[in-house]
Write a structure and sequence with these properties.
FAD/NAD(P)-binding domain; alpha/beta
Length: about 325
């Protein structure tokens, strides 16, 4: 069977890509599988805190990482995984295109899936004004009025990205203050096109069946609980991609993130996790921490496969 590897990395975001780079340096025969190359990193409109780049988009950073992986000759499959079975000394994976692969070890770097508001109109107007990606869809809202829900770095940078094109941006957050880094909060507060609406929830997306026309709020804004907008961008975090892990008996925390030790190992000796899907960084989910965790996971796989002391050959 030619589809047998020492390692399979599931997920092609910063954690998975970095793990692949390190696995290549360790000369581990491996396969990288990802349904979205670049992961959620590609949705980041402005990145100012990744070493080596004063300012770069998520798409550009993802492309640079992907180019590096490809130059190393890594086998990449742009597909999703449907099922994982644990055999006596390996794992068997079935992908969305009905291919079957086997590996002695796994690195799970599946990240998170976009959290939804789960309000009326959200699904109905998806693609008609509702979006989860400002980087992808900002161009459609030139000189229009949009709302952004959320208070994180992702929400604020999305608002700033949209403000460069839109007529007006409402940044709506259910608490006060925002959760974003102070530098991003300051930029948003100084931007004349951005109005921050604190301690407010969006209850419903309203429209005329063709497009979004307004948002229903849980409290009045300037005397009205309906806020006129042409679009809504939802940036309220994500849910960990761990559904495939549950049948394997991988230990998860109360929020379904994979429990990992400092070396990114799990309760299953041959299974490791890295990036946003792992619980090691808590709410501090950053591209740079995901990349670091990917490197750690690859090193741990190397030590596991050779059966030696995990601290040996740990070159810096």
């Amino acid at each position: 069977m030619s589809n047998i590897y020492a390692l399979i990395i599931i997920g092609a975001g910063p954690a998975g890509l970095t793990a692949s780079i390190y696995a290549s340096r360790y000369q581990i025969k491996h396969l990288l599988i990802g349904s979205q190359l670049g992961g959620t990193m590609v949705w980041a409109s402005m990145i100012e805190n990744y070493p080596g780049f004063e300012l770069i988009t998520g798409v550009d950073l993802a492309q640079k990482m992907m180019e590096q992986v490809k130059k190393l000759g890594v086998e990449i499959k742009n597909t999703g995984v449907l099922e994982i079975k644990q055999k006596q000394k390996s794992f068997e994976l079935k992908t969305e295109n009905d291919e079957v692969y086997e590996a002695k070890a796994l690195i799970i770097a599946t990240g998170t899936q976009r959290q939804k508001l789960n309000i009326p109109g959200e699904v109905e107007y998806l693609g008609k004004g509702v979006s989860y990606c400002a980087t992808c869809d900002a161009a459609f809202f030139k000189e229009k009025i949009v709302g952004v829900v959320g208070g994180s770095n992702a929400a604020v940078t999305s608002a700033l990205h949209l403000a460069a094109l839109a007529q007006k941006v409402y940044l709506i957050y259910r608490k006060k203050p925002l959760r974003a880094d102070p530098i991003w909060q300051e930029k948003a507060q100084k931007n004349a096109k951005i109005e921050i609406i604190y301690e407010t929830n969006v209850l419903e997306v309203l429209g005329d069946e063709q497009k979004v026309t307004a948002l229903k709020l849980d409290k009045n804004h300037q005397g009205n609980n309906q806020l006129k907008v042409d679009g809504l961008f939802i940036e309220i975090g994500g849910q960990p991609g761990t559904e495939l892990m549950k049948p394997l008996g991988v230990e998860l925390d109360e929020e379904d993130y994979i429990k990992v030790k400092p070396d990114m190992s799990t309760n299953i000796p041959s299974l490791f996790a890295a990036g946003d899907v792992a619980n090691i960084s808590g709410e501090f989910q950053q591209i740079v921490t995901a990349a670091a965790e990917g490197a750690l996971a690859a090193n741990s796989v190397y030590q596991y496969l050779k059966g030696g002391n995990k601290h040996e050959d740990n070159h810096r």
